[in-house]
Amino acid sequence: MRSDASKSPRAHIIFWVAFLSFKIYHEYVFTLSQYDSLTKIEAFESSFIAQGGMLPVRILFSYWLIYWLMPRSDKNLLKWILFLIGFAVAIVIHRLMVVYIVLPYAYSSIPEVQELFSLERVASAMVDIATAAGIAAMLVFYARNKAAKEREARLEKEKVVAELQFLKNQTNPHFLFNTLNNLYALARKQSEKTPQAILQLSKFMRFVLYDTNQPTISLQEEIQMIENYISLERLRFGERIKVNFEAAQGLTAYQISPLILLPLVENAFKHGASEMEENGFINIRLAIENGSLHFSVENSFNPVSTEANGGIGLSNLKRQLDLQYPGHELSSSSKDDVYSAVLNLNLSEND
Predict the structure, then answer these.
(1) What's the whole-number mean pLDDT along residues 136-154?
(2) CA-to-CA dists, residue 146 to 3, 65, 139, 143, 152, angstroms
(3) What torsion, rounded to 10 degrees, do the Cα atoms 334, 335, 340, 344 define?
(4) What Rg value do the Cα atoms of the chain yield, rounded?
(5) Using 50, 70 and 90 to split pLDDT, how confident is the model at 120?
(6) DSSP letter at 154?
(7) How many separate helices (H) and strands (E) can be counted in the chain?
(8) What is the DSSP letter of 6?
(9) Residue 3 pLDDT exceeds 50
């Protein structure tokens, strides 16, 4: 009842003080109605002594049940036998304390004599002890169950974070590898564009090394990274591929997971338009409406090519979207020599 409230001394003290207060009040009302000779102060003192005197039996049986009997791995039959023995011992101790300690001290001015083990008194003791132990057990088990669920949720979250980091660790070198291939192609041609490509690559690497370690970045930063990537590809393919990128304005207020859009653009270059000897094109559109992002990539491709659209970039993207944007929609289609991919996601899901 520390993170596990069932082990918190403060919670235990609060419970027993509250339980004792209730029992004292109940005893006080009963005493006033039964004994006209007692004043209110005397009735309260008697009730306090009586209920306080019986509290240790309730506490000992409750903790014996919760922390010793219930956690045991014995068979159910043996546990039930132990429970009945423990319960019987508690009832005997309860009755002995009531008859020989509690009544003589709490109600010394009232010469009342109780039978030690009458059916009525034993039944009353059973109810008294079972009520205290039952409420305490329910609260402890509730606290334990809550702590277990919180622990499970925390482990699940840590698992998701670890998987996302693993996917990023795969994706980042993947992009760098493809970009280095582009740079290598320019270097082999001894192109005068090589220094510019190296500059673009340095920007890309800075982004990958630093910005992708954050859970989210501004959407404007993601767009800038896409534009840097497109610039690199333009250096490589020149006029072979026409690229049109349309993005809405005022996107700095939106946050998005790093490199969540770039795989679709890379896929359009690597598995689509780059296979065209001429008249290749890529059309990219990004729009925001009511916090929802609409991202579409359309590219030409060679229908007779044996290389299918896909790869580690897209497979990782699909898994990241499942983990971070469970309500997303990702679809693709091809018609004639045009391949289209459309991504819709709610940016508020990743806040």
Answers:
(1) 84
(2) 10, 20, 10, 5, 10
(3) -80
(4) 37
(5) confident
(6) H
(7) 9, 7
(8) G
(9) no
- CA–CA separation, 330 and 296 (whole Å): 10
Task: Return the closest-CA partner of residue 258 out of 298, 210, 293.
Answer: 210
Each residue of 301-311: b (16+ CB within 10 Å) or e? bbeeeeeebeb
- Residue at token pair 């299918």: 308
Domains for the chain: give ranges and CATH numbers: 5-152 (no CATH), 191-350 (3.30.565.10)
Do residues 265 and 272 touch, judged by C-beta distance below 8 A?
no
The reported pLDDT for the residue numbered 174 is 57
Per-residue pLDDT reduced to its tens digit, 152-200: 777 666 666 665 555 555 555 656 666 677 677 667 776 677 777 777 7
Q: Is 1 helix (H, G, I), strand (E, B) or coil?
A: coil
Amino acid at 36: D
**CB neighbours of residue 215 within 10 Å:** 12
Helix or strand holding residue 332 (H, E): strand 329-335
Q: How far apart are CA 275 and CA 307, in angstroms?
A: 9
Residue count of the chain:
351
| C-alpha closest to that of 295 among 346, 240, 335 | 346
Tokens at residue 141, please?
A: 């088990």
Residue 351 is which amino acid?
Answer: D
Q: What's CA 71's distance to the chain center, in Å?
A: 27
- At 189, phi and psi to the nearest 5? -80, -5
Pick the more confident residue, 209 or 323. Answer: 323
The pTM is what? 0.54
Show the tokens assigned to 272. 């689509």
What is the distance between the alpha carbons of residues 63 and 1, in angstroms, rounded to a whole number?
12
